[in-house]
Amino acid sequence: MTLITRRGLIGGAAASAGVLLSGCDKLAQNEEFRKILFSGEKMNQGLQRALTNRGALAPEFRPDQMSPRFRTNGTRDPNTPDYNGQAAARFANWRLQVQGLVARPLSLSMADIRQLPARTQITRHDCVEGWSAIGKWGGPQLSTVLDAAGLSDRARYIVFTCADLYNGAPYYESIDLVDARHPQTILAWMMNDALLDIGHGAPLRLRVERQLGYKHAKYVMRVDAVASLAGIGRGKGGFWEDTVDYDWYAGI
């Protein structure tokens, strides 16, 4: 959660400037005001990072603490012709592309990914919709894949492109290198000691345990290392960030 919310920034500005509440909608639609607002959010992100230990581990739980039901978040089934064909073949032909600012671009099959050293962790998923659940995840650490690809010194962010479509375009999300190299950030292909099911992101999803659920991209097809988020969607780092102004940094 952010220490200073966007609502708090607007409210503080309104109080100090004597802006009437009836004018807030007009302000929010003003491009110059939005630029000021987002510059404040960037300052807030910097403050939050300075006050928190981003290398700290998210809490892990015992098997008996796992939730009997783990709801799905976001897309429940991409239901595109390509995805349906992949699912029918049990994802035998699925490839994870690792591209961008890397020395050795990779194209990994699910068999390749399942042969990588895996980390398992029982963690709590906190959804922005207001629910939480505890589940067990397994898969290689993202850092293992990035190291195999030879990450460039120019890379600053990792972008995930997915098989599910929103408004006809693939879902996408991004994290910075601090979260990308966090030991609990994994590309999960297992959930609760079984292969991921479709509702939970089969065959491969991101688990970035220090962030809210919408950052945990499902149906991951491509991983790109980039120097900037400019030019990706609307430049704010993810589908929900671009479309409804979710925070790019959703740390918890």
From TrEMBL:
State the SUPFAM superfamilies in the record.
Answer: Oxidoreductase molybdopterin-binding domain
Q: Which InterPro entries match?
A: OxRdtase_Mopterin-bd_dom, OxRdtase_Mopterin-bd_sf
Bias (Polar residues) ranges: 70-82
Q: Where is this region: Disordered?
A: 60-82
Organism's domain of life?
Bacteria
* Domain Oxidoreductase molybdopterin-binding stretches: 91-225
Please name one Pfam family that this protein belongs to.
Oxidored_molyb
* Name listed for the protein in its UniProt record: Molybdopterin-dependent oxidoreductase
Organism equals Sphingomonas hylomeconis
